[in-house]
Design goal:
Elements lengths: L6 H6 L2 E13 L16 E8 L10 E13 L8
Antiparallel strand pairs: 1-3, 2-3
Length: 82
């Protein structure tokens, strides 16, 4: 996952979750196997901006001065009344 959703996409979103994490020292014991999936229309996006941390981390590796910025944005489905 790379590149947070744009500020414009976040401003139009109905749902936004964002987090920022910093660490002076980060040791990865077991690299995570993760993914984010969206189902339905292309009305959602998520991603990270990372400093001093590769997209794929390595088991047993140590990273210093790490910063991760994550955002997820989504639009609620519009329902037409019948």
């Amino acid at each position: 996952m790379s590149g947070r959703p744009s500020d414009e996409d976040i401003a139009r979103a109905d749902i936004v979750m964002a987090a920022e994490v910093e660490a002076d020292d980060l040791e990865v014991k077991v690299a995570p196997d993760h993914q984010v999936e969206f189902h339905g229309d292309d009305q959602a996006a998520s991603g990270t901006n990372r400093e001093n941390l590769p997209e794929s981390v390595t088991d047993g590796a140590r990273y210093r001065s790490v910063r991760i910025s994550y955002a997820l944005q989504a639009r609620a489905a519009r329902v037409n009344p019948t």
